[in-house]
Amino acid sequence: MRANDDWIEILYKTHGHGLELLARKAPGETVSSMGPIGQPFRRSPERPNTLLIGGGVGIPPMVFVADWLRQDAREWHPLAILGSELPFPFDIVPSKFETPWLEDCVSSTMPLLESWDVPTRLATLSGFDGCFDGYVTDLADRWLSTLSDAELAQTELFACGPTPMLKAVADLAARYSLPCQVSLEEFMACAVGGCAGCAVRIKTPEGDAMKRVCVDGPVFDADTVVWQ
Fold first, then answer.
1. Is the sign of the CA dihedral 56, 81, 2, 111 positive or negative?
2. 198 lies in which domain range?
């Protein structure tokens, strides 16, 4: 939802009793909501090369991050890498952007990001046409390995997806000494910081501490997360 807009869009996956009840809502019914809550991604102006990595239900947040970044008048050189083992929730089309660091057959992209001039490539192990055969981190590694030291100094990573993927992204970022922010996925009961059911272990200057994903996150610096 943007300022001055009169609508809000909620994306969710039906998993568990509460979301099953939400999925039964019909047009015209009323629901109550509270927000925004938590900490968002933070852009570093000195790092215009932004790599967005989304996996599964972590794809939509990366789309919204791209929408947010493209509103910024500052210089921005994005690349989005999206992965899924289920059919992508959009029609995949050939990209207009060339990727000389990839085989020509890896050309499928997301039409919406393409229309925003955000170069995008798709990764899967399910053999979808035009997609990279491998993990999103394998594809990201391909791109990062082609950058010069000067280009890497202007690069940062944003990621959202399942925890094993986020840990792999954090490891990749550490290998290239790049700043990386991750949006964690955790089960939330109250989502307002009261129950602490979504707490994760985070490194702080005072030592490890339990932080609540709903209000202290969901976005954390990847190198502060104690990956289980």
1. negative
2. 186-228
Kindly report, residue by residue over 110-161, the tens digit of the pLDDT: 999 999 999 999 999 999 999 999 999 999 999 999 999 999 999 999 999 9
74-97: pLDDT as tens digits: 889 999 999 999 999 899 999 999
Does residue 226 lie in a domain region? yes
**Reported confidence tier of residue 191, pLDDT bands at 50, 70, 90:** confident
Domain identity same for 156 and 190: no
Query: Do residue 61 and residue 117 come from a single domain?
Result: yes
